[in-house]
Specification:
91 residues; mainly alpha; 4 helices; rod-shaped
Length: 91
């Protein structure tokens, strides 16, 4: 079958020149489409962690306990509530 292919002036075979011609007839609208540039991901800012002292939590838990009328057995709940408030999670 190699003998049946015709060679063009440029030295390529006829089958090869057909694929080249087909690829050069690609629609020009596709070339005009702009794609967004790939950007580097921005570095995440480190989270600022403020530590709350044991004394600050204890003072706030005491204030919560007083505000609730001094109930017995709610110390863990009051402590957790105070800790959440002071760490900014209770707002």
């Amino acid at each position: 079958m190699a003998g049946k292919r015709k060679t063009t002036k440029s030295g390529t075979t006829a089958a090869a020149s057909k694929t080249t011609a087909a690829s050069s007839k690609a629609p020009t609208a596709a070339k005009a489409v702009k794609r967004p540039r790939a950007t580097k991901p921005k570095a995440k800012m480190p989270e600022v962690v403020m530590t709350v002292s044991h004394d600050q939590i204890a003072k706030r838990a005491y204030e919560i306990w007083l505000a609730k009328g001094c109930p017995q057995g709610a110390d863990h709940q009051n402590w957790a509530e105070a800790e959440a408030e002071l760490n900014g999670k209770g707002r």
